[in-house]
């Protein structure tokens, strides 16, 4: 198998093991067995369990950041932007892979390398949202950033709560409910051309 394909296979297998068992309970033996390879093959691609975990966290963080970027770029209508951004978090959390657990529920957040990567989701998503808020409202950068971090926090916490509580309402309905709340709040800051 070509190196790139083997790496992807190993990452997929590791994701399943880490999501199911958590970092501390997962063993490289478990991951190698799940991938159907020997442990030396696994170590040819990743020097250790932490490096493998960090590669997965990077991939997972990139995915949610890219989803947020796409949601913001998909329209110029701010109400729709809010809805699509909130939906991006709900879709990410609802994905069958369970990758969100590595980002939002890691049992390794005390490790500085993991914490830095996890915080990158909030930082980069909030930076993108703050840029839109500042541009549209004329608010100062610090106020725009605080509003943006609040919106990201609302999306993260509510989507995880929705899933943890058994997804008692359909995902589109849950995302619409939260985006409605977010829009009712953020629309109170008028566009700068309306001031």
Distance between the termini: 61 Å
Class inferred from helices and paired strands: mainly alpha
Could you give the count of β-strands?
A: 0
Number of helices: 9
**Domains, number:** 2
CATH topology of the largest domain: Tetracycline Repressor, domain 2
Percent helix:
over 70%
Q: What order do the helices and strands follow? A: HHHHHHHHH
Low-pLDDT parts are none
Say which CATH homologous superfamily of the largest domain is assigned.
Answer: Tetracycline Repressor, domain 2
Share of residues in strands: under 5%
CATH architecture of the largest domain: Orthogonal Bundle
User: Please, what is the average pLDDT?
Assistant: 91
Overall form = elongated
Q: Which CATH class of the largest domain? A: Mainly Alpha
